[in-house]
Every structure is written in structure tokens, then in C-alpha cells.
């Protein structure tokens, strides 16, 4: 029998983390869990660590260390807390690491996992958006396999198996359009967080659900794709496809277009990274196109969804601009979820911060963190001004 592969799950209590652990639990002989991590939810983290017999559980919020230690008492599982502990957990060197912390908070542990030179499944798009060049240089240095989990990028990765980047003419990222796909801008003014988190096809964490509603998610994905598949910005296009069945497409030089299809269940792309380069069984529903009957497509509307334009402008500006865009968006989405600003204010704040922040050059993790901090500061100030 083969020795089990060691795996670590960062963001284990979240939507992607839970789906990942669901797959891992279905093949207990194949995997040994090293580290599981969370931000604040000690109870869920401890339960996960015990259920999956993890070696270590790490909570980002240091104030919760005592609670975590108490919850794991007698289990033999190590408890740790704080941002350095997240990096140390990555340095345990799992064969396969799921990077599913939400936001730029996941950047340092993801980079630490990449430095091991093993396999990193990347869901944490904000890390790649903020630190694209730094991350891709670290991947090249360590020889790590960086496997995209985002369903679109995972689809592209799968489509590229039939041709390769050199022969690509165009990559099309599909977008569901989110819950407000058909809403006028006027009607968007009054939407509530509860309406905005209700995605028509996917069940996801709160932050990415809001990003889908503003379509900033597609903007972040464009930046992510730009780094993962370096073919130049002009070769990417976005196509609204409300059913989320075609997850993305690659058109080759000979005009063959290869697409990846599947039901909207994140366990499908996660499984493809977990088993890569092989395939594994999943409990997911099979695609039934006859019952579905039709697939629809439309062009994205950048007037109602300015986030798409802002993301493209950030790529064109280069340097720290994508990190600024991401930081401003994280602050604005948080403020909207807390009921402090309106839905349309999210895009407004991102645009204003992009215009005001010092984007600068990015050569290291520290450069990214400095730009991220200063953009957050400006975004907080603009948010406060909007409220008063
Ligand atoms: P969730 O909000 O469901 O989960 C986020 C995870 O990150 C939780 O484990 C949370 O812990 C942890 N976390 C939050 N803040 C911090 C912090 N400051 N430090 C350390 N850990 C923290 O998010 P999702 O699972 O939806 O998304 C995770 C990532 O995957 C995002 O980058 C998202 O864009 C991406 N993604 C998600 C998809 C989905 O279907 N959900 C699809 C494609 C990409 P706690 O529970 O304690 O708060």
C-alpha cells in the first residue's frame, strides 16, 4: 500500500475548506492531515481537527489561543495561534496544501507553502491578485505546482492540457453575472447584503458572494488569469453565462475551442487539484444537458458593473495597482456587509482609492503588505467620509 499523502487545509472552516475536507474524508487511507487553520471560529476548527485527526490546528486570532487549547485538550493535537503560526504551519511541508483563506490575509502562508516546492491548490485569489509577480516568481524558484481551484481557472488549466499556452488564440472566462445580472443600476442602489449574498448557482463564503454580485469577482479572476496564464491581457475575454455550466474556454490557433463543463459544485475543481495529475471519484451530481435544455450567453455590461473596467485598468497600470484594488475592495465589501455603506458605494470606493493610493513597484512580500496597508487606510477613511 502507498503511504498516505500529507495535506494541509488553510481556511478549513470556510466554504472551500469544508468542501476540501469532505473529499479528503472520503479517502481516509489516501491522505494524512497535517495542519488545519481558521481565522476566528475556534469551535468549528477544533471539531474539524479532531474529526480529521490533524496534527496541528492554527487559529489566526491570537486572542482565541486559550479557547483552542482548551477545545483540543486531551486530543493530542497541537494548538497554535497568530500570523507567524500560520506560516509555520505552511512550513510543515505538506505534499498538498489547500490555500483557502479569504483575502490578502492568506498571502504570507500561501507564499510559505509555495516555498516548499510541493503542490499548492490556490483558491485564495486575493493573494495572487495582490502579489502576482512575487507569487509567480516564488513558484518558479521553488518548482512548486500551483494548481488553480477557482472553477474558471481550473477549467482553463484542464483545457490547456489539449494544446498548451503557445498555441492559444484566446481565453474566455465565463461569468454567471451574479444575483443582479438583470438589475438596473438604479435598482442596485437599494439592494441589501442579504440579497447580495444569494448567488443563483454557487454556495460560497460571504466575501466572494458580494464580489460576484458586483462582478468584482470576475475582475479579480481576470487579474488571477493574467498571472497564471501569461498570454497578454488582450487575449482574455469575459462572457456572461448565467447557468455556470461551462466554466471557461480556450480557443486555439486552429480555431478549435475547448471548454470544461460541470455542475456548479466546487468539489469538482477541488478534486481535480487533489488527484492531479490523476482523477478521483466525487459525490457530485453528473451534468445532465438534456434536462438543462439550453445554455445562454451574453456580453458583460461594464456600465452597470464597473468592477470589470477597474480590474483591467489595474492590470494596465501594473505595479501595486492590483494590490490597491484588492485592498480597497476588501474594506468596501466589509463595510457593505456590516450595513455601513450601500452596494454601489463599493465600486465608488475602489475607484477613488485607485486614484489616490501610491501604487509603486512590487518586488517582495513586504512591498505588497505596505501597499495593502496604505490602501486599506485610505479606503477606511473614504468609507468613514461616506457615512458622515
Ligand atoms: P469563507 O468565508 O467561507 O472562508 C474563509 C476562511 O478563511 C475561513 O476558514 C476563515 O476562518 C478564514 N479566515 C478569514 N479571515 C482570516 C484571517 N484574517 N486569517 C486567517 N484565516 C482567515 O470563504 P470561501 O471558502 O468562500 O473562500 C475562500 C477563498 O477561496 C477566497 O479567496 C475566495 O475568493 C476563493 N474562492 C471561493 C470559492 C467558493 O465557492 N467559496 C470559489 C472560488 C474561489 P473563520 O471561519 O474562522 O472566519
Descriptive notes:
The structure is a single chain. Helix 12 (216-228) packs parallel to helix 15 and helix 15 (307-317) packs antiparallel against helix 16 (321-337). The longest helix has 23 residues, at 365-387. By secondary structure, the chain is of the alpha/beta class. The strands form two sheets. It has a seven-stranded parallel beta sheet, sandwiched between helices. A four-stranded mixed beta sheet has the order 9-8-10-11, with helices on one face. Helix content is 46%, strand content 15%. Helix 1 (15-25) links the parallel strand 1 and strand 2 (31-38). NADPH dihydro-nicotinamide-adenine-dinucleotide phosphate is lined by residues 11-17, 38-41, 60, 100-102, 105, 123-126, 150, 202, 204-208, 266.
Please identify the structural class as seen in this structure: alpha/beta
Order of helices and strands: EHEHEHEHEHEHHEHEHHHHEEEHHHHHH
The total of helices stands at 18
* Overall spatial form: globular
Largest sheet: 7 strands, parallel
Topology of helices and strands:
Blueprint: E1 5-10, H1 15-25, E2 31-38, H2 42-51, E3 56-59, H3 65-71, E4 78-81, H4 83-90, E5 96-99, H5 107-115, E6 119-122, H6 125-130, H7 132-142, E7 145-148, H8 151-159, E8 168-175, H9 185-188, H10 193-196, H11 206-214, H12 216-228, E9 236-240, E10 246-252, E11 257-261, H13 267-275, H14 289-292, H15 307-317, H16 321-337, H17 343-356, H18 365-387
Helix pairs in contact: 4-5, 11-16, 12-15, 15-16, 16-17, 16-18, 17-18
Bound molecules: NADPH dihydro-nicotinamide-adenine-dinucleotide phosphate.
Amino acid at each position: 500500500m502507498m503511504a498516505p499523502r500529507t495535506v494541509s487545509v488553510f481556511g478549513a472552516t470556510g466554504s472551500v475548506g469544508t468542501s476540501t475536507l469532505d473529499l479528503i474524508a472520503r479517502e481516509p487511507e489516501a491522505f494524512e492531515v497535517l495542519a488545519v487553520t481558521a481565522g476566528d471560529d475556534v469551535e468549528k476548527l477544533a471539531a474539524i481537527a479532531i474529526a480529521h485527526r490533524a496534527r496541528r490546528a492554527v487559529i489566526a486570532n491570537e486572542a482565541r489561543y486559550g479557547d483552542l487549547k482548551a477545545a483540543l485538550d486531551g486530543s493530542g493535537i497541537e494548538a497554535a495561534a497568530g500570523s507567524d503560526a500560520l506560516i509555520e504551519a505552511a512550513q510543515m511541508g505538506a505534499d498538498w496544501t489547500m490555500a483557502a483563506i479569504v483575502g490578502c490575509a492568506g498571502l504570507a502562508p500561501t507564499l510559505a507553502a509555495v516555498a516548499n516546492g510541493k503542490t499548492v491548490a490556490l483558491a485564495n485569489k486575493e493573494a495572487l491578485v495582490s502579489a502576482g509577480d512575487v507569487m509567480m516568481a516564488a513558484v518558479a524558484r521553488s518548482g512548486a505546482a500551483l494548481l488553480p481551484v477557482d472553477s474558471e481557472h481550473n477549467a482553463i488549466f484542464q483545457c490547456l492540457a489539449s494544446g498548451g499556452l503557445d498555441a492559444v488564440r484566446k481565453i474566455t472566462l465565463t461569468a454567471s453575472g451574479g444575483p443582479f445580472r438583470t438589475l438596473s443600476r438604479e435598482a442596485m442602489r437599494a439592494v441589501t447584503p442579504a440579497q447580495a449574498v444569494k448567488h443563483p448557482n454557487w454556495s460560497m463564503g460571504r466575501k466572494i458572494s458580494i464580489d460576484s454580485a458586483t462582478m468584482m469577482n470576475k475582475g479579480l479572476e481576470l487579474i488571477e488569469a493574467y498571472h497564471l496564464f501569461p498570454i497578454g491581457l488582450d487575449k482574455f475575454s469575459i462572457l456572461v453565462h448565467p447557468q455556470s455550466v461551462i466554466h471557461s474556454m480556450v480557443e486555439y490557433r486552429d480555431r478549435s475551442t475547448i471548454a470544461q463543463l460541470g455542475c456548479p459544485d466546487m468539489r469538482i475543481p477541488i478534486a481535480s487539484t487533489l488527484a492531479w495529475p490523476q482523477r478521483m471519484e466525487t459525490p457530485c451530481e453528473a451534468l445532465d444537458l438534456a434536462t438543462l435544455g439550453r445554455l445562454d450567453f451574453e456580453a458583460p455590461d461594464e456600465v452597470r458593473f464597473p468592477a470589470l473596467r477597474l480590474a483591467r485598468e489595474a492590470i494596465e497600470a501594473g505595479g501595486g495597482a492590483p494590490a490597491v484594488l484588492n485592498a480597497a475592495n476588501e474594506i468596501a465589501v466589509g463595510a457593505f456587509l456590516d450595513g455601513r455603506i450601500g452596494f454601489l458605494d463599493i465600486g465608488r470606493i475602489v475607484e477613488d482609492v485607485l486614484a489616490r493610493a501610491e501604487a509603486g513597484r512590487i518586488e517582495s512580500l513586504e512591498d505588497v503588505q505596505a501597499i495593502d496597508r496604505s490602501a486599506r487606510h485610505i479606503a477606511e477613511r473614504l468609507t468613514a467620509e461616506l457615512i458622515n
